[in-house]
Design brief:
The chain is mainly α. It is built from four helices and no strands. Among the domains are: 30 residues, no CATH class; 30 residues.
């Protein structure tokens, strides 16, 4: 095991040791390739962005709900329209995810 660590010099030795012991027992699964690790990192980044966007959308909807619940209504003579903001909101929700290419 020590020789294995010295030859491979992994950045994180404990998962490497566990993998090595599982391989010896015949229970090990192949480790991720560099391409798979890269794709996994991209997916994690995408999930984080989507979570952030979901929080923003949720906070916007909470603000709108609070405004409507508090009874604040537009004056009858006011001609401003909020449908433009709603369209942007729907565009964000309906934006398709970019497919990841197999590497």
């Amino acid at each position: 095991m020590v020789a294995e660590l010295l030859l491979n010099k992994p950045q994180e030795p404990i998962p490497h040791i566990v993998q090595h012991l599982q391989d010896i027992q015949g229970k090990g699964t192949p480790s991720l390739t560099k391409e798979e690790k890269s794709e996994l990192n991209l997916l994690r980044d995408e999930v984080e962005k989507l979570r952030s966007k979901a929080k923003q959308i949720k906070s916007k909807s909470m603000v709108k709900r609070d405004e409507s619940d508090s009874g604040s209504k537009k004056a009858e003579g006011d001609s401003s329209d909020d449908s433009e903001g709603d369209d942007e909101f729907l565009d964000e929700i309906n934006e398709p995810l970019s497919p990841l290419k197999n590497q």
